[in-house]
Amino acid sequence: MRVPILKQGPFLIASVQSALTDEDLVQLRDDLTQMVGRHHSRGVIIDVTALDVMDSFAARTLRSMAATIKLKGAHSIIVGIQPEVAFAMVQLGLSLTGVSTALDLEDGLNLLSKQMKENQNGG
Amino acid sequence: MAGNGANAPVLSGNEIVIPIKSDVDVVIARQEGRRLASELGFNAGDITLIATAISEVARNIVNYAIRGEIVLGIVEELDKKGISIIAQDNGPGIKDIALAMQDGYSTSKGLGLGLPGSKRIVDEFEIASEIGKGTVVRMKKWKRQNINSRSWV
Amino acid sequence: MPEKKNSRNSKVKRTATDIQEAGDYARSLLEASLDPLVTISPEGKVTDVNEAVVKVTGILRKDLIGSDFSDYFTEPDKAREGYQRVFATGFVTDYPLTIRHKDGHVIEVLYNASVYRDVKGKVAGVFAAARDITAQKKTEAELAKTNAALQGQIEERRRAERAILELSTPVLQLREGLLILPIIGILDSQRARQLTEQLLNSIRDNRAKVAVVDITGVAAVDSKVANHLLQTAEAARLMGAIVILTGLSPEVAQSLVSIGVDLGRLITVGDLQGGIIEADRLLGFKVVHNQDDFTTRRV
User: In order of start, what are the domains of chain A with their CATH numbers?
Assistant: First the structure.
């Protein structure tokens, strides 16, 4: 099922569902990349609160997603990784190197806003 | 055959066979695994680990073998109970199992099949592969006897 | 001729006596039996009883004879079904029923019953024998009670152990966004697991951004536990929180490094106070949750 993407000012918010297939994830990557370009978004939040399993493919794809979006000038933040999922990822040896994380949507948006302000102030 | 030792699994009761053809089936397989693990009484953390291991091996079938199946079952031994996960396919087989099992936190090492990670999170792991014939991965995870039944670690 | 007549008469008299004696003998056995014995007619009426039946029901023999068999049970329908089954199939074994004595008390029994036939082979009635299992049932009930009590004790024990475990790894919220976890005592694998669960759950529940884990009071830290702490810190980062480890003595740090534990990805500060200062600093600033920002501080 296609992941819905909402535009909130300079940011894009995508909330994935638990039954996320590989195809959905790849589609999401393409959609986000396209939309960031179209709207000149400054930040992207990918909310994985509903995701019950984060395996190596998901981790790999999220990392490449963040890298691609960065090239288009936007910062990505993954939010909503649950305690059990976080621990499973770590035990599996999955890292999200180079990807920012925050607890939830609120924290993620705060983080993006702060970073945007920093960038504006030449920080 | 490489692995940390497991006899042919003794499956008691019902087996769940999930045919794997596309990435949609990967999601179904891990949801079934989640359900079975929950029925068996695994804690939340172990359920997630089991679902993740299933996701990894099921995806390998889709990516490399085109077609195969995941068989889930209950195993019992003396006084412990657990879940059995078998991933089998008639794909091209893995040429270098040692390489596939090589650990690497990035995908630069190993073949990116998610096998070393899966081996880490289950209690018993076995892999057998023959070029041109196919691959079988057998995994078992036992229920932990925990004092704190609400614990998910 | 009178002699012959006499001998014939005496033979007849002897046979009649034999029959009488045989009958008396059989009767005396039935009366001596401690088990209540009854015969039931096809209409369900009691046709004969022994002394034990009088005792178990508290009813006089003359009142028992001719009355309904099912009248003397707590479940009359079940009793009726019982003898009807005997008439239908020929016998019934271990059929449970409860007899009610005239004065109100009950007796649990198991019935063995079968049909008996007259000389022509026709079914004349049901012969039923009851076995008193009151004592047996009492023992069973007591056993069940003891089991339940034991089960309850086991549950209580488990609850207490859980509580102790939780108390020994408390999570304190110092201020908004800042958690402190002081660990005292032995940090084995089980406690380490407990720690991880409580830490990660607390991060979510308290929306914490920094957690200071103090192991000043921990006796020994082996590589397994150290790795577990590392994993916990990584998992916390995935949830947007930073873990600061305090109380790691230089000696322990050195020994861990020497056996290959990579502490480089963990933030460590000498003592708890220093850790809190560092936490405030991090909270005051914009926190960049990037893998590359983790550094080890000199103790």
Answer: 5-120 (3.30.750.24)
